[in-house]
């Protein structure tokens, strides 16, 4: 199939591009590079040996998106373009609402206009709120009331469900992603977040001296060591879930499906710290910090529906996550090239089409 991946120059997106191409699909990327990097796509090309066109376009720009649907003969969409809390920029609720909902509207419009009837979209464990029933199963209520991001994820799901149920032939699948970590084992692609990023990126930043210490949010949670517990899932396992969902969404006998994409195992933040120390052989400085509003003490998935319907089960461990993440971060201590002081000099604006030539393996230090 020819699959449009929105957000394909981002963290989950670049790994999903590689997995889709390796599964035999043709892939086209649209990404506005607001938090992505063209090197992620060119390296995905190098890893797979296949050309992956990159359109530098805001998905919420309906005219620009229409031009892509006009020319690329898209058969399915994997939707990963969105804003998520990374701590790296001054993102507010308006950023989450505008992008996460706005891009969903335009994408659905174009899909309907062009008769593209398969969509798999990323959602988040944040829809389960800050005091989730664990393990969280897909049938729990998702009216998260404690974070703007969680609310946009929950609203986006509602929009997708309503449109899927009203539009004959349209099949939509949602993957509720838990905490992604790790990187491609080559060390070529990974999370590029020099000033923020997820837990693993922050751990690497401490070890590399970019960050003084890791803030562990609270030591009084009702967990064995008092730190919060999360469901850490390797980004390559997540990518495999998107590949499986693209197939399954066309097979299941319902217009709208939701699957949890998590490991099903809770791991405490301090356990991750210790595993990272064991893998890297380096000490990680950390301190107990205030618990931000809306932080769950324990969050982990019940992934049994995804196993049953997608035939998907994560196969990588937290030690794999740490080892693969560290390899990426050691080889790319400043992330992808070109990111200087937050500037993204290649940004071409809406409608600009960027063609990057693969250039061997330029990422190794
Ligand atoms: N990484 C995680 O742990 C995690 C967990 C739960 C859910 N998710 C969800 O998965 C998706 C991908 O997350 P990620 O970690 O890869 O984030 P990311 O920021 O690395 O990737 C998102 C990509 O989308 C692009 N983008 C943003 N707005 C855009 C727009 N309007 N038009 C075009 N491109 C746009 C960015 O430039 C970036 O490349 C998001 O929806 C996120 O909420 C991620």
Automatic annotation (TrEMBL):
EC number: 5.1.3.2
UniProt keyword annotations, A-Z: Carbohydrate metabolism, Galactose metabolism, Isomerase, NAD
Keyword Iron-sulfur: no
Reactions listed under catalytic activity: UDP-alpha-D-glucose = UDP-alpha-D-galactose
CC cofactor: NAD(+)
Source superkingdom: Bacteria
Gene3D superfamilies, alphabetized: NAD(P)-binding Rossmann-like Domain, UDP-galactose 4-epimerase, domain 1
Pathway stated in the Swiss-Prot or TrEMBL entry: Carbohydrate metabolism; galactose metabolism
Family the UniProt entry places it in: Belongs to the NAD(P)-dependent epimerase/dehydratase family.
PANTHER family registered for this protein in UniProt: UDP-GLUCOSE 4-EPIMERASE (PTHR43725)
Protein name, per record: UDP-glucose 4-epimerase
Lineage: Bacteria, Bacillati, Actinomycetota, Actinomycetes, Micrococcales
């Amino acid at each position: 199939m020819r699959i449009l991946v929105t957000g394909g120059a981002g963290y989950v997106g670049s790994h999903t591009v590689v997995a889709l191409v390796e599964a035999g699909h043709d892939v086209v990327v649209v990404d506005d590079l607001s938090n992505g990097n063209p090197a992620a796509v060119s390296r995905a090309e190098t890893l797979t040996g296949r050309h992956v066109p990159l359109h530098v376009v805001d998905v919420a720009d309906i005219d620009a998106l229409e031009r892509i649907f006009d020319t690329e003969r898209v058969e399915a969409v994997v939707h990963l373009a969105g804003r998520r809390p990374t701590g790296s920029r001054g993102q507010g609720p308006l950023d989450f609402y505008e992008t996460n909902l706005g891009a969903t509207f335009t994408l659905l419009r174009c899909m309907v206009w062009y008769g593209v009837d398969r969509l798999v979209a990323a959602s988040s464990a944040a829809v389960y709120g800050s005091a989730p029933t664990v393990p969280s199963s897909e049938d729990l209520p998702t009216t998260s009331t404690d974070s703007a991001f969680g609310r946009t994820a929950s609203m986006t799901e509602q929009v997708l469900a309503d449109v899927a149920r009203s539009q004959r032939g349209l099949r939509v699948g949602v993957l509720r992603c838990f905490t992604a970590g790790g990187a491609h084992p080559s060390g070529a692609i990974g999370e590029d977040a020099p000033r923020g990023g997820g837990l693993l990126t922050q751990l690497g930043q401490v070890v590399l001296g970019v960050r003084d210490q890791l803030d562990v949010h609270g030591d009084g949670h009702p967990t064995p060591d008092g730190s919060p517990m999360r469901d850490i899932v390797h980004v390559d396992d997540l990518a495999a879930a998107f590949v499986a969902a693209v197939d399954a969404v066309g097979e299941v006998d319902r217009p709208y499906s939701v699957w949890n994409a998590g490991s099903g195992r809770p791991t405490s933040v301090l356990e991750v710290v210790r595993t990272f120390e064991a893998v890297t052989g380096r000490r990680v400085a950390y301190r107990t910090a205030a618990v931000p509003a809306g932080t769950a003490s324990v969050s982990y998935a019940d992934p049994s529906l995804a196993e049953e319907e997608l035939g998907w089960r994560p196969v990588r461990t937290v030690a794999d996550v740490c080892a693969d993440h560290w390899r990426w971060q050691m080889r790319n201590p400043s992330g992808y090239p070109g990111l200087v002081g937050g500037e993204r000099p290649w940004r071409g604006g809406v409608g600009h089409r960027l063609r990057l030539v693969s250039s061997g393996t330029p990422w190794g230090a």
